[in-house]
Amino acid sequence: MIFASALRDGETAAAIIGIVTAAASDYYYLRVVVNLYIHTSEQSGSIEISVAEKCVLSTAALIILAGLFPMMLLR
Q1: Which of 31, 5, 37, 35 lies closest to 18, judged by CA?
Q2: What is the reported pLDDT for 68?
Q3: For the chain, which residues make up each domain, given as ranges?
Q4: In this predicted structure, what is the pLDDT of residue 47?
Q5: How far apart are CA 17 and CA 40, in angstroms?
Q6: How far apart are CA 72 and CA 65, in angstroms?
Q7: Interior CA angle at 65 toward 75 and 46, to 5°?
Q8: CB 6 within 8 A of CB 15
Q9: How large is the C-alpha radius of gyration of the chain?
């Protein structure tokens, strides 16, 4: 809709640049999805997580939960 609006308003160059950059980003992000779900893993087995990594992951999880449920903190 944004590109159609730009074309209607005569902003052809901006619409073309936007379409090309959107296509390039689609290609980049779809490569990530293909690598995640279609290609098989080269390593097998369990992953060892250090204490520092556990602390970082726990902190990130708490921040995400605080963002999803802010009223729990505000009460």
Answers
A1: 5
A2: 93
A3: 2-39+49-74
A4: 82
A5: 36
A6: 9
A7: 150
A8: yes
A9: 22
Written as one letter, the residue type at 71 is: M
Amino acid sitting at position 69: F
* Angstrom distance (rounded) from CA 56 to CA 62: 10
Tokens read off for 43: 């390593």
Dihedrals phi, psi of 8, to nearest 5 degrees: -60, -35
The alpha-helical segments, DSSP class H, found in 9-48 are 12-37
- Tens-of-pLDDT digits for all 75 residues of the chain? 999 999 999 999 999 999 999 999 999 999 988 888 887 777 777 888 999 999 999 999 999 999 999 988 888
CB 21 within 8 A of CB 3: no
